[in-house]
Amino acid sequence: MYGNSRVFIFHDFSAATLRKRKRFDEVKKRLRAVGATYMHLYPASLKVVHNGLSKVSDDPAEVEKFMASLNQLTMSQQVDAFAEFRDKRRYWDPCVCPRG
Predict the structure, then answer these.
(1) Is the pLDDT of residue 15 over 50?
(2) Distance, CA of 48 to CA of 6 (rounded, Å)
(3) Percent composition of the chain: helix, strand, coil (DSSP 3-state, to 5)
(4) Pairing, β 53-57 against β 37-41
């Protein structure tokens, strides 16, 4: 708020930057499907975090390779990563905390 008025701030990227970011659209759909967290970094890179592993890339093909490598984790690695995630989540999610 500024005075009595609401202030809105919008990203103002060049057309070239928007085109570069748009290259990640298909990859982002797949990332959402597997529950990975991602964010755009300026100007046109994508940071992906999944199961405690992260990757930053400006090439959608590299992100695809990273996701493929995650699929090749052993079952025990996947169980360990999930257990770590679950344990961290227990501290902030009221639905997961045991009632006392």
Answers:
(1) yes
(2) 33
(3) 45, 20, 35
(4) unpaired
Q: How far is CA 97 from CA 68, 80, 88, 89, 100, in A?
A: 33, 20, 11, 9, 9
Say what the pLDDT of residue 93 is: 47
Query: CB count, 10 Å around CB of 85?
Result: 14
Contacts of 65 (CB under 8 A, 6+ apart): none
Which tokens belong to 78? 């996947």
Q: Which residues lie closer than 8 Å to 32 by C-beta, 6 or more apart?
A: none
Contact assessment for residue 44 and residue 14, using Cβ atoms and an 8 Å cutoff: no
**HSE, side-chain direction, 13 A CA sphere, residue 5:** 3
Predicted pLDDT at 38:
93
pLDDT of residue 69: 82
Is residue 63 a contact partner of residue 55, using CB atoms and an 8 Å limit? yes
